[in-house]
Amino acid sequence: MLLHLCTWPEVEAYLQESQGIILPIGSTEQHGPTGLIGTDAICAEIIAKGVGEATQALVGPTINVGMALHHTAFPGSMSLRPSTLILVIRDYLVSLSRAGFRQFFFINGHGGNVATLKAAFSEVYEAIADLQIPNGDRVQCQVNNWYMCGSVYRHAKELYGDQEGSHATPSEVAVTQFVYPEAIKQAPLSPEVGHGHPIYSAVDFRRNYPDGRMGSNPALATPEHGKEFYDLAVTELVESYRKFIGSSL
Amino acid sequence: MLLHLCTWPEVEAYLQESQGIILPIGSTEQHGPTGLIGTDAICAEIIAKGVGEATQALVGPTINVGMALHHTAFPGSMSLRPSTLILVIRDYLVSLSRAGFRQFFFINGHGGNVATLKAAFSEVYEAIADLQIPNGDRVQCQVNNWYMCGSVYRHAKELYGDQEGSHATPSEVAVTQFVYPEAIKQAPLSPEVGHGHPIYSAVDFRRNYPDGRMGSNPALATPEHGKEFYDLAVTELVESYRKFIGSSL
Amino acid sequence: MLLHLCTWPEVEAYLQESQGIILPIGSTEQHGPTGLIGTDAICAEIIAKGVGEATQALVGPTINVGMALHHTAFPGSMSLRPSTLILVIRDYLVSLSRAGFRQFFFINGHGGNVATLKAAFSEVYEAIADLQIPNGDRVQCQVNNWYMCGSVYRHAKELYGDQEGSHATPSEVAVTQFVYPEAIKQAPLSPEVGHGHPIYSAVDFRRNYPDGRMGSNPALATPEHGKEFYDLAVTELVESYRKFIGSSL
Amino acid sequence: MLLHLCTWPEVEAYLQESQGIILPIGSTEQHGPTGLIGTDAICAEIIAKGVGEATQALVGPTINVGMALHHTAFPGSMSLRPSTLILVIRDYLVSLSRAGFRQFFFINGHGGNVATLKAAFSEVYEAIADLQIPNGDRVQCQVNNWYMCGSVYRHAKELYGDQEGSHATPSEVAVTQFVYPEAIKQAPLSPEVGHGHPIYSAVDFRRNYPDGRMGSNPALATPEHGKEFYDLAVTELVESYRKFIGSSL
Amino acid sequence: MLLHLCTWPEVEAYLQESQGIILPIGSTEQHGPTGLIGTDAICAEIIAKGVGEATQALVGPTINVGMALHHTAFPGSMSLRPSTLILVIRDYLVSLSRAGFRQFFFINGHGGNVATLKAAFSEVYEAIADLQIPNGDRVQCQVNNWYMCGSVYRHAKELYGDQEGSHATPSEVAVTQFVYPEAIKQAPLSPEVGHGHPIYSAVDFRRNYPDGRMGSNPALATPEHGKEFYDLAVTELVESYRKFIGSSL
Amino acid sequence: MLLHLCTWPEVEAYLQESQGIILPIGSTEQHGPTGLIGTDAICAEIIAKGVGEATQALVGPTINVGMALHHTAFPGSMSLRPSTLILVIRDYLVSLSRAGFRQFFFINGHGGNVATLKAAFSEVYEAIADLQIPNGDRVQCQVNNWYMCGSVYRHAKELYGDQEGSHATPSEVAVTQFVYPEAIKQAPLSPEVGHGHPIYSAVDFRRNYPDGRMGSNPALATPEHGKEFYDLAVTELVESYRKFIGSSL
Fold first, then answer.
1. Residues of F in contact with C130 (CB under 8 A)
2. How much of chain B exceeds pLDDT 70, in percent?
3. E128: distance to nearest CA of chain B, Å?
4. E75 and F7 in contact by Cβ < 8 A?
5. Most distant CA pair in chain A: distance in Å?
6. For chain E, which chains pass the contact test of at least 3 CB pairs under 8 Å?
7. What totals of helices (H) and strands (E) does chain C contain, helices first?
8. Other chains touching B, judged by 3 or more CB pairs under 8 Å
9. Alpha-carbon distance values, D156 to A234, B91, D217, D228, E191 (Å)
10. Helix/strand/coil for F2
11. What per-residue confidence (pLDDT) applies to F248?
12. Does E62 sit within 8 Å of F78, measured CB to CB?
């Protein structure tokens, strides 16, 4: 159930049954010569939608632009600064908490978001206490990286081994191919690909990863793989969501 | 051309031809008993996509949550504070300006965003000067409210007269019906509807507009009307975009 | 009644009768070769004082420096960034709301302030809710641009036609001549004057408007005109203030 | 020479001769049962104007609302938070520094502003370095409290002894009587007056200083005294300004 | 070599040889009935000092108060909000980067700091780019949790098994006993101890962990163990530091 | 009693007896060719510890990095911006106030901190009111500069006369020699030393004070003097602390 396709009376009714909501968060950043700039948002959104359908949980609007400062030396990448993203998360969750939501289940498509999201959660708990929102101490936030689901991770290793890499991976590219088969891109990929460098500044990142890939071979991706990853992630996150919601009982 | 469906080399190539980008901005807020919470984002996104297709312009990711604090007494509404939205716009445009974009054409679906957007533009020009981005003084931002297009406005008046109202309007509801016919909602609408009250605090807003509508009768909306509004808005904004882009020559 | 010329017990007594206050806001920015840098503040202040006298309303201190970033390529111009001005408005209104004021009637002398002021109002309503100020949901803010008063606007058109322009206008210059006849400036004005360019960065503004005027001919201004504009604005804003105050009954 | 009564070409010419500017800063806060709420702004403004006339220095717009949080338990008091005032000072001085001003001579009428002003100066030097304003390392700020001028201080002690007190003092009240003889207020003053309490929260302040005075007897003030204080302050600050300006040679 | 015990010419000389610096960061927070509130700062500081001695690296001042909002329902706990800690890290690293430091090796004693530190690093890289610090794109930050050193972790498991827990652990308590044998505390520990609960708000944390421990039995700690952990951590982090410094060659 | 060496139950018990806490604040900044970069933190910390021992008062963690922007043109200096330091103080005191602390006695070792600290206190009182912390209006903050203690000041004048200067003074250097005799530094000192220049930007500071000293001759310092200054400061501040604590009765 997408929040965007609900009316407010429907949300009011929903809150009688559940105080949980799924919030997809992605990124708008380069994904190598063939990966879509929207990859992380596309993956998070479709999987969140799948989890929402299976659990009857409400799914909020996708945060399309996340923390991707290290990718901004490649054109088309967009990023919030961490301090801005913290404020965005704070404003989202304060709005929703005032209405009665208490359990925020983020489905995340981008590793660069994780640290800032976790920092934001701490900031939010404090803000909600400061605002004296009733039962605000019951607010719970959790970040779930779909690509870190055990089943997803294992399947990627099986299919791609070391060529999965860690950015512009065939697994995430596959999911976007499943969602947008009309947007499958072809481009020559250099046989050598940067890998193993820690992430520092944007300029340094591009120096180390000249075409944007981090140790990956996205040419291995297929839409069929994408469907498999999607199914695995949804199945596993449905379980996670149920456990998360149940934990507050 | 959706930025999310491009690769970074495609964006690099695009920038050789154009420094313009379309940025849809909506809101996540109550739209009365039958209007979708995502109405403003849905409308802005679909129209932006249409303008992008017609002009070959790049269309960035939709800002789904805008400035809707006055709607937050209704469950499901979400809002950034104006100060947060200013930072979001700043971060978006700094990222894009560093890559070479210079002309930012916002297609907006929510009246409550306008003041903050305009304030943000001023903040952005200054930030870009502070950062000494080359040719940063050439950055241009423009906000275009699709519902204020002359042709749209006139057509709404023709179809609905005074029942167009100013929030949860049949015209915007119609566009969402055109986009999501499967999500057309039915609910009884009181014959009387609040209208004419200025907008102050969220609590005051709900006091004056108890079901969320502002003088509107969304029951008049049809998907066919939605198609008409969509076509009118796209046609008119294509013209506006071309004029905007041309203005920097 | 100027707040600056009251004692606190007088304010305490006033609050028993009214919770309204008039707040003048101007700007400190270039107004062409002959216009005073303080034009917008001078006009807002004198008109606010006039409205206060006629209505027995309290008039707060003038905000002398507003949002004029686009004028800062001309020496003598000063500006707050929008984000700073929002904080200033917030702090002003929180101070006054805690004391019992509920209705804030801004008399504004500068178009560049409007968007930020409106954004600030939204931020203020939220802040006051956050702070749980008693009856804070009754706070009402309104911006009134004296130069947009119907009678003023019409009179300017009658007197000056197209030469009224939109910045360093003869009407606003006339008001300053009425207030400060000793500071009427003479300088040659180029027959051609920039007009019709949208406002972007400060550098771009000066490129398009090399002497600072926007389509105006301030040489048409006279102190007598200034008196007429003053009278028209005061008369019309007295009415607006009464209506505004009455609206909360 | 008041900045507000200059044109931008006049400022441009002035900057060829001097990079100094006088900035009056006051406060809007209770001054006991008979002192004007605008006392600190009125005094700073009139004295700054006098110094400007004697030195041909430019005088900027008065900062009417300063840091007076501890007075806000009395109605009519307004305050910026220190963090906001720092931003205001930053924005003022960045605007002026970009235009070429380098020496900022604040004439201050309120003790509560001093700490925040000094903190702001440090913030400004850093901001100007960050922005790489040419010769920005030559920027100099100085705060001058008119009431701390040796001659003023001594004269107040001669006239009033201990009854000068430290807030709502007869000396500052006298200056306002000199400026606004039409606004001399009468009210009974309790023979006992709070004194010697450190300043903490607003509530605590009012507990310790129930009528707002701090050890003072403003009933001793006369407009004639006000003239004397004005003359002393102007004379002494003229000297200070000349020394300040000369120090950069 | 402690920065605090150096002179500035010594630092100037050091920078000719190395651009690396070790920065200890801890926390000030409850550590159960017997753990010291300064545990995390004490451990980080002593280990950083040891690594500095072995590598001749400069060791900066300890950040004593970190991100511990979830502990603040226990008296004596202090915390920065994540947004504040980000600013602190930014200011530290901007100061040091301007002087020539490029490699920032944080030795961290508190799990709650990690997310905010990583977010801060991203913010810092961007800030340094914004400030155009020469070679700023070479800045590198790394967080090293001493308690996550493989050798430390294994030794703790050997000594304590499951009773190591995850907060107020015997291993960290042991290190403080080694450093401050005079401050070894005794108090009865309940046989049952909270464990396995995710961390949300401060109130929720205390509800789940009533005496502050998370699954740990700090009664097992001894000063001798502390010496062992200290030696293991220093040895391993010396290696990490050398590798980190070498990585920029 | 150092907070860092307490457990939370000990703090809980302490709060039954006292709501006071001593907070040392120093700086990390150049102190001339022979003074330690940590001088201000070292002095504040040791004296705070001494006062805490004599009064049984709790002593919080030392703020090692303060407001020293004007020293940052010398390598090894670190600084928070004033706006950041205000947030740090706010977060510290909000944490402690929530736990029940009400009296915050800062022992300060650096003149550059004073203005920002005082500004921060005002910000804190307001924040605590905003957060509606029970009895928050009883919060009291006081800054005590150990080097301004009458007895210390006089002794420095006796021992060093004018050569005490105002930065990198023999008195503060002496205290660090007393604490760290192993870190007494030798370096040639130019016979001439800058003095009398006001403090503006960092670059300007170094121009005027090329070796970092301000009118001082730290070669006069001895560890024995340091012991004397330490004793004088502790004795005097013990008295101040008792008076401060007693003031709230």
1. 130
2. 99
3. 11
4. no
5. 57
6. A, B, F
7. 8, 4
8. A, C, E
9. 79, 54, 12, 10, 72
10. strand
11. 59
12. no
Q: Which residue of A has its CA nearest to B68?
A: A95
Closest CA to E122 of F80, B130, A193, B91: B91
Q: What does chain F come to in residues?
A: 249
Q: How confident is the model at residue B248 (pLDDT cuts 50, 70, 90)?
A: low
Question: Which of F191, F20, F196 has the alpha carbon at shortest distance from F100?
Answer: F20
pLDDT, tens digit, for every residue of A1-23?
999 999 999 999 999 999 999 99
- C68-87: per-residue pLDDT in tens? 999 999 999 999 999 999 99
Q: Please say if the pLDDT value at position E249 is more than 60.
A: no
Closest CA–CA distance from residue C6 to any residue of chain B (Å): 29
The distance of E94 to chain F (nearest Cα, Å) reads 9
Write out the two tokens for E132.
């155009």
List of E strands, chain A: 20-25, 58-59, 103-108, 140-145
Four-CA torsion C220, C226, C231, C237, nearest 10 degrees: 90
Contact predicate A48/A12, CB 8 Å: no
Beta bridge partners of A145: A108
> How far is CA D55 from its chain centroid?
18
The values of phi and psi at residue E140, to 5°, are -135, 135
Please report, for residues A160, B59, C57, F39, F63, the alpha-carbon distance to residue C102 in angstroms, rounded to integers and kept in the order given. Answer: 65, 43, 13, 52, 42
Domain annotation for chain F: domains and CATH numbers: 3-235 (3.40.50.10310)
pLDDT (average), residues B180-209: 97
* E248 band by pLDDT with thresholds 50, 70 and 90: low
Q: Which of C86, C125, C126, C130 would you mutate first to test chain A, the one with the most A CBs within 10 A?
A: C130
- Give which of A133, A77, A51 is closest to A100, Cα–Cα: A133
F140 membership: H or E segment, kind and range: strand F140-145
Q: Could you tell me the CA-to-CA distances from E7 to F77, F226, F229 in Å, in that order? A: 10, 18, 22
Using CB atoms, pick whichever of D114, D129, D201 lies closest to residue F137. Answer: D201
Q: What is the mean pLDDT of residues D55-81?
A: 98
Please check whether residue F35 is in contact with residue F182, taking contact to mean a CB–CB distance below 8 angstroms: no
ipTM for the whole complex: 0.97
C-alpha separations of D48 from D230, D236, E172 in Å: 10, 12, 61
CB contact under 8 A, E116 and A115: yes
> Cα–Cα distance between C70 and C82 in angstroms, integer?
12
Residue A79 and residue E122: Cα distance in Å, rounded?
A: 11
Contact B124, B154 (CB under 8 A): no
SS (H, E, C) chain B: CEHHHCCHHHHHHHHHHCCEEEEEECCECCECCCECCCHHHHHHHHHHHHHHHHHCCEECCCECCCCCHHHCCCCCCECCCHHHHHHHHHHHHHHHHHHCCCEEEEEECCHHHHHHHHHHHHHHHHHHHHCCCCCHHHCEEEEEEHHHCHHHHHHHHHHHHHHHCCECCHHHHHHHHHHCHHHCCCCCCCCCCCCCCCCCCHHHHHHHCCCCCECCCHHHCCHHHHHHHHHHHHHHHHHHHHHHHHCCC
| Dihedral of alpha carbons F169, F171, F172, F177, sign | positive
CA distance C91 to A129: 22
> Which region, left, alpha or beta, applies to residue F209 given φ > 0 means left and ψ of -120 to 50 means alpha?
beta
Per-chain mean pLDDT for chain C: 97
Q: Is B223 exposed, middle or buried, given 0-12, 13-18 or 19+ CB atoms closer than 10 A?
A: middle
Given a cut of 90, whether residue C120 has pLDDT beyond it is: yes
Distance CA C184, CA C191 (A): 20
Residue F169: pLDDT above 80? Answer: yes
Interface residues on F facing A, Cβ-Cβ cutoff 8 A = 130-132
Scanning every residue of chain C, which has its alpha carbon at the shortest distance from the alpha carbon of A132? C130
